[in-house]
């Protein structure tokens, strides 16, 4: 999984960088997604491999706080990128003639920068909120990596402020992004249904299939985790869903877009044949 995720996202980035034919807004957003997935794989999978291959079961508090910072930062950035990709599909379908003039490279760069800054400001306090605590409970994590909620529960201090802030960041970031994505697709459906030609209608919807698959890969495990009750549920199921939510998107996103994009699939085949 690690090798496929690293190679897949690296190949996507290499093709988008070297092929002028794909210097379009959709592929620029796809490169943002690939960078995020690549960073997420590098942040999490080495720790998991260390546990399973070398029985390395300990991590210092500072390393743990750094890891949880980057995990939450990158997951929230991915959520923002998925919203930008939904916005891109809306512009492409709603106003195709002005698509290139609306989503210029400077505007895309500004959108990406604003998204990263917003997420960084939200996530930056998390490790500092945890660093000030004393830890007196059994310091055993359920997952093979550090998460804010798990580390917070190991403290022997009052965590109400931390809990409220953690919930606020999730609602303000992923909750807002998912709402905007939903509204984007409502507008896309409204536009598509107004198209008289049945063939053109299907063609327009077909351009959204890759993005919809990526949304399902990203949000389905997270929604499933939030719906599982904390007590009385299977710990194995929680751990499995935790792995899926973190490891599956970086693995599957390059595959989904390579299969759906004929241009990308042809360039990838040519690259490996060479």
Automatic annotation (TrEMBL):
UniProt name for this protein: Olfactory receptor
One of the GO biological process terms = cellular response to lipid
Q: Which residues form the G-protein coupled receptors family 1 profile domain?
A: 8-257
Q: Does the keyword Phosphoprotein apply?
A: no
A GO CC annotation recorded here is: plasma membrane
Annotated TM spans = 27-54, 66-87, 108-130, 171-189, 201-219, 239-259
Q: Does the keyword Secreted apply?
A: no
List UniProt keywords, sorted A-Z: Cell membrane, G-protein coupled receptor, Membrane, Olfaction, Receptor, Sensory transduction, Transducer, Transmembrane, Transmembrane helix
Q: Known PANTHER family for this protein?
A: OLFACTORY RECEPTOR 56B1-RELATED, OLFACTORY RECEPTOR FAMILY 51 SUBFAMILY AF MEMBER 1
Which molecular-function annotations from GO does this UniProt entry contain?
G protein-coupled receptor activity; olfactory receptor activity
* Bilayer topology term: Multi-pass membrane protein
Q: Where does the record place it?
A: Cell membrane; Membrane
Sequence similarity: Belongs to the G-protein coupled receptor 1 family.
